[in-house]
Design a protein that fits this description.
The complex is a heterodimer of chains A (286) and B (280).
Chain A lengths: L1 H9 L9 H11 L5 H8 L3 H11 L14 H8 L1 H16 L9 H21 L4 H10 L2 H9 L1 H13 L4 H9 L3 H11 L4 H8 L11 H16 L11 E2 L4 H6 L8 H5 L2 H16 L1
Helix pairs in contact in A: 1-12, 2-3, 2-6, 3-5, 4-5, 4-6, 5-6, 6-8, 6-17, 7-8, 7-14, 7-17, 8-13, 9-10, 9-12, 10-11, 12-13, 13-14
Chain B lengths: L2 H6 L5 H15 L5 H17 L5 H10 L1 H10 L11 H18 L2 E7 L5 H17 L4 E8 L2 H9 L1 E2 L9 H7 E3 L5 E3 L1 H4 L2 E5 L5 H5 L5 E6 L8 H14 E9 L12 E6 L2 E6 L1
Classes of the chains: A mainly alpha (286), B alpha/beta (280).
Bound molecules: S-adenosylmethionine and fe (ii) ion (2 copies).
């Protein structure tokens, strides 16, 4: 099964490509000097995206006390150029994967992903890790699930069932059914999409951050963000087992950077993160 | 989300609201979510308009020094209430994870509703235990200890008769199974459930009294009560609770409450939808 899965993704058969606009924004922000004007011109090629971007710029999260923002340029400045790519990603991705099947709860899948993105962004600041990239990595961390489902829907539903009957995590169930898990699958897709390694590595290793070759802390961050997301209730699997925070691989890696008295303040705001994430997701759904 | 906040921010800024939330967190251990802050804002504005407080500064002072203002805020945030299966995800975890594991390990299990109010919480725990036993087709001894400082609420708990508000989240099949509908339309808890629960008039900070609970507790719910205490009492109550817990026993606090800064010897365990403490 493993080889079949890999070859299917490699061929990108029936799999979406990255929207042009995301690729373009990605290319621009990777150059050393770019102007807000350039970004604006790209964004405005897509009126639907532009409208959504303005909505995001006017959410409480990005614009808590300010005046209403009505121009794309102002919006880009308000959001911060470093946040632009993650947000454009966040607004486009949801439309890239179209699933009209009731047995795969695609809304819940995205709520989980957006919540993870928001939690990752918030706690990245605490750890002094790049928060904009944390958002993107959080958003994409489980993308392999949706890919696996798109290629082999029946088998994937079997794997979901296994999480319930065996009370095991999704990646375990996938390994049993496909001999490969969503983290690896995500990596293959994101490589096809030419996403930077800083993002791909935490996606690939979010369940085993200790194996990450060069961005171990970042992978650990997504590991913790994912566990917090599960604890927030925005969870896609049907397993219910408990995880001891101090024994999770991400925590073990980042432990040295956590002050004992800060632990709960890292956890407490997760319900705020959920609210922000759901607002974001709703704007993205349109 | 907080559009009303954005508009009203002219009068009380979000920064000030944050500050007030910090005072509440510091004095009570209750973490306010954004939607709580929204409610709080409306409350403060109303009280300022009524002249109850002269200024925001005046409100802050009162909040820090008078318990009654803090309690009023809790009322506004509806923390003072209780009902069956409150914080549903806690009961999910009890049902799916904790009780099945306990039943595998031992013949008799002891649960505790610390600050049980009018009884909805301990009865919900008992019902959950009955449901798990039925599903697993096993028979175990389950006792639920429930205490509160108020005689008044305990009397209601003992009577075990509830109106539609208290039972609004009880699924119909559970309602049918464990309640008896009264002629006046109220619901009385069934004798089977009632016989599992023992009520005690007892304060969580009463050292000698707390020993009477016994130090063999497997699961304790202590939700929405510690916030009424000052730090010292919270510490004291938590260490008395901790003392009564078996090794590996679970402690549930209200979803916005925290214990870690106050007491050692508790591990944080994350379940889907619930964060629970476990005695090391
Ligand atoms: C908001 S109710 C919580 C009820 C229930 N645990 C829940 O979460 O729904 C708070 C209860 O704590 C009780 N209480 C306050 N101080 C107490 C103390 N020192 N010892 C025991 N109970 C106390 C009050 O009488 C009240 O019934
Ligand atoms: Fe995952
Ligand atoms: Fe995940």
């Amino acid at each position: 099964m493993r080889d079949l899965v890999i070859s299917k993704i490699e061929s990108l058969e029936n799999l979406p490509t990255l929207p042009e606009i995301v690729t373009e924004v990605m290319r621009i922000v990777q150059t050393d000097d770019f102007s807000v004007k350039e970004l604006k011109n790209i964004i405005e090629k897509d009126p639907v995206l532009t409208a959504k971007l303005l909505k995001i710029a006017n959410t409480f999260y990005y614009n808590p006390y300010g005046k209403e923002i009505t121009s794309t340029e102002r919006a880009i400045i308000q959001l911060g150029t470093k946040n632009l790519l993650p947000i454009v990603f966040g607004l486009s991705l949801i439309k890239v994967f179209t699933i009209q099947d009731d047995s795969f709860d695609v809304k819940l899948f995205w709520k989980h992903s957006y919540t993870c993105a928001h939690i990752a962004k918030r706690i990245a600041k605490y750890f002094n890790l790049p928060d904009a990239e944390a958002f993107t990595a959080g958003l994409l961390h489980d993308v392999g699930k949706i890919v696996l489902y798109m290629i082999f829907p029946k088998d994937y539903l079997k794997a979901i069932e296994l999480t319930e009957t065996e009370n095991i995590p999704m990646f375990e169930a996938e390994r049993r059914v496909f001999d490969i898990d969503h983290a690896e699958v995500g990596e293959i897709l994101l490589n096809k999409w030419h996403i930077p390694q800083l993002i791909i590595e935490p996606v690939r290793y979010h369940h085993e951050p200790d194996k990450a070759p060069s961005h171990k802390y970042f992978a650990a961050l997504i590991n913790i963000a994912n566990i917090f997301t599960r604890a927030s209730g925005q969870y896609f699997g049907k397993d219910t087992y408990g995880v001891v925070l101090e024994e999770t691989p991400g925590w073990l890696i980042l432990k040295k950077r956590i002050k004992e008295e800060d632990v709960e303040e890292l956890i407490m705001p997760i319900n705020d993160d959920v609210e922000e994430a759901i607002e974001f997701a709703n704007i993205a759904w349109g | 989300m907080l559009t009303s906040l954005g508009v009203k921010a002219m009068e009380i800024s979000y920064k000030e609201l944050d500050e007030i939330s910090k005072i509440i967190y510091r004095t009570s251990g209750l973490y306010l979510q954004k939607r709580d802050k929204d409610k709080l804002l409306k409350y403060i504005e109303k009280k300022l308009a009524e002249g109850r407080f002269r200024s925001l500064e005046h409100f802050k002072k009162e909040l820090e020094h008078s318990k009654s203002v803090l309690y009023e805020v809790f009322d506004v945030l509806t923390i003072n209430e209780t009902f069956f299966f409150r914080h549903k995800s806690h009961f999910n975890i009890l049902e799916k994870e904790i009780l099945p594991k306990l039943f595998k390990e031992k013949q008799s299990v002891k649960l505790w509703s610390a600050a049980c109010s009018t009884g909805e919480e301990p009865y919900s725990m008992a019902i959950t235990a009955l449901e798990v036993m039925e599903k697993l087709k096993i028979k175990k001894t389950v006792r639920v200890i429930a205490n509160d400082i108020s005689q008044k609420v305990l009397k209601v708990a003992q009577e075990g008769v509830y109106g539609s508000y208290a039972i609004r989240f009880v699924p119909p099949d559970i309602l049918k199974k464990y309640f008896i509908k009264q002629p006046d339309g109220k619901y009385k808890i069934s004798p089977k459930v009632k016989s599992m629960v023992r009520f005690m008039h007892l304060s969580l900070t009463d050292e000698a009294g707390m020993k009477r609970i016994g130090n063999d507790i497997d699961v304790v719910f202590c939700r929405n009560v510690l916030i009424y205490f000052d730090i010292e009492s919270r510490k004291k109550a938590l260490s008395l609770i901790h003392y009564n817990m078996n090794k590996g026993a679970y402690l549930f606090l209200g979803p916005a409450e925290s214990a870690r800064g106050l007491i050692k010897g508790l591990k944080i365990v994350l379940f889907p939808g619930a964060i629970v403490y476990c005695k090391e």
